[in-house]
């Protein structure tokens, strides 16, 4: 068997006639081609890097123009700001999103949703506007900006501490939270001042007193006041009850008179723990003005104290003594000693209600849970306790109604 023959490069008898000199020249040509290919690849890489470096330069120029437009807009030069906005958008159509995305990340808040802190840039914009507003930080130099020129001092000149003190006057010890929320809609600076953690902490302390507790399951003091059950103070809880009553008999046997009796029940709560309760057949517009002050004395008025127990409120009430028109106006004349009336008695009412939401209104509904009266006869000291039968017909739930006159004036700030 013949061995396979492998031709050698240095074989002189090769049919194509390759020699050592030709081989060296081919190797040299191969090296030159290889170097040229490497140089070409290196140049292509440099060109791509150069193009890549040019892209951030355009973006930085667009950012510069956009930020300059923002400064002009803040200073009131809107037309000049629009010019720079157009140039920035022409260079990069997504420059607005990139500018906001490159801002600071939101700082982790400890207890409050927003606080009055040092000067800060805008936080990252979120799709949820509520979340974005909660993360805003106030700028001490710009609480608000005046829209029109005026000769007098504008409120934007006031320091933040003084503005918050004014807000406490708005809230007042009567806890007019509605006015505080309306005030927060004036400007961004007012919105952040109205969310000050110190104000809402004082509001919670005045509402629950020693039982306020700590922030554990609530994000902030404002969140506690909104979500924790409590009664509303800037108005009155009202219910309407009606029943049929037999009238007086007449000579006509075919006619039986019936009367439809309608009356209203009112409950007014004060932040210091005082409660007023009254039933009247008069129009609510007439009766509500009588419950404006704690010192009012009306026939059938009950006055006492209340306290919270979770979503329930318990109270103990007594009848308010009214002035007797039959009083003796001649004190110098000695009167004979009067004997104790055996029918003279003192009544104490115990009321327990459950605080509920009504439609989209929080804590605007009170439902009866317990209602009883304890009668003490002064002559004998005997005590009688009576429980009222509760049903939706005779004791319907009370719904809250805001009364503007209750918080029309403020006598002192919130403390």
UniProtKB/TrEMBL annotation:
InterPro entries: F-box-like_dom_sf, F-box_dom, Hrt3/FBXO9_C. This is F-box only protein 9. Keywords: Cytoplasm, TPR repeat, Ubl conjugation pathway. Pathway: Protein modification; protein ubiquitination. PANTHER family: F-BOX ONLY PROTEIN 48-RELATED, F-BOX ONLY PROTEIN 9. It is found in: Cytoplasm. Residues 152-203 form the F-box domain. Pfam families: F-box-like (PF12937), FBO_C (PF19270). Its main location: cytoplasm. One of its GO terms (biological process) is SCF-dependent proteasomal ubiquitin-dependent protein catabolic process. One of its GO terms (cellular component) is cytoplasm.
């Amino acid at each position: 068997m013949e061995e396979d023959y492998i031709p050698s490069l240095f074989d002189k008898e090769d049919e194509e006639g390759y020699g050592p000199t030709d081989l060296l020249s081919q190797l040299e040509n191969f090296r030159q081609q290889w170097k040229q290919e490497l140089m070409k690849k290196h140049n292509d890489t440099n060109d791509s890097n150069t193009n890549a470096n040019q892209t951030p330069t355009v973006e930085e120029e667009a950012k510069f123009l956009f930020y300059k437009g923002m400064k002009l807009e803040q200073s009131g030069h809107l037309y000049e700001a629009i010019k720079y906005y157009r140039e920035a958008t022409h260079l990069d159509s997504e420059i607005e999103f990139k500018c906001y995305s490159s801002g600071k990340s939101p700082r982790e808040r400890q207890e409050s949703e927003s606080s009055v802190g040092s000067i800060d840039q805008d936080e990252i914009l979120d799709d949820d506007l509520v979340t974005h507003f909660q993360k805003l930080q106030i700028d001490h130099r710009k609480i608000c900006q005046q829209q029109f020129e005026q000769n007098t001092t504008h409120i934007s000149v006031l320091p933040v501490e003084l503005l918050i003190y004014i807000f406490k006057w708005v809230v007042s010890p009567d806890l007019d939270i509605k006015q505080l929320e309306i005030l927060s809609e004036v400007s961004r600076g007012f919105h952040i001042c109205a969310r000050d953690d110190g104000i809402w902490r004082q509001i919670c302390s005045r509402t629950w007193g020693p039982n306020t507790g700590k922030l554990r399951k609530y994000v902030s003091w404002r969140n506690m006041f909104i979500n924790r059950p409590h009664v509303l103070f800037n108005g009155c809880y009202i219910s309407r009850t009606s029943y049929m009553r037999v009238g007086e008999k007449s000579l006509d046997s075919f006619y039986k008179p019936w009367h439809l009796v309608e009356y209203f029940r009112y409950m007014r709560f004060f932040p210091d723990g005082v409660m007023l309760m009254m039933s009247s057949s008069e129009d609510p517009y007439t009766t509500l003005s009588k419950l404006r002050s704690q010192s009012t004395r009306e026939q059938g008025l009950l006055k006492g104290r209340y306290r919270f127990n979770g979503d329930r409120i318990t109270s103990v009430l007594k009848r308010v003594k009214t002035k007797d028109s039959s009083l003796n106006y001649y004190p110098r004349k000695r009167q004979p000693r009067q004997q104790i009336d055996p029918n003279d008695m003192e009544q104490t009412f115990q009321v327990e209600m459950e605080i509920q939401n009504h439609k989209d209104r929080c804590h605007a509904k009170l439902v009866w849970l317990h209602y009883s009266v304890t009668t003490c006869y002064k002559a004998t000291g005997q005590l009688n306790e009576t429980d009222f039968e509760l049903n939706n017909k005779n004791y319907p739930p009370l719904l809250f109604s805001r009364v503007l006159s209750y918080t029309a004036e403020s006598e002192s700030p919130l403390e």
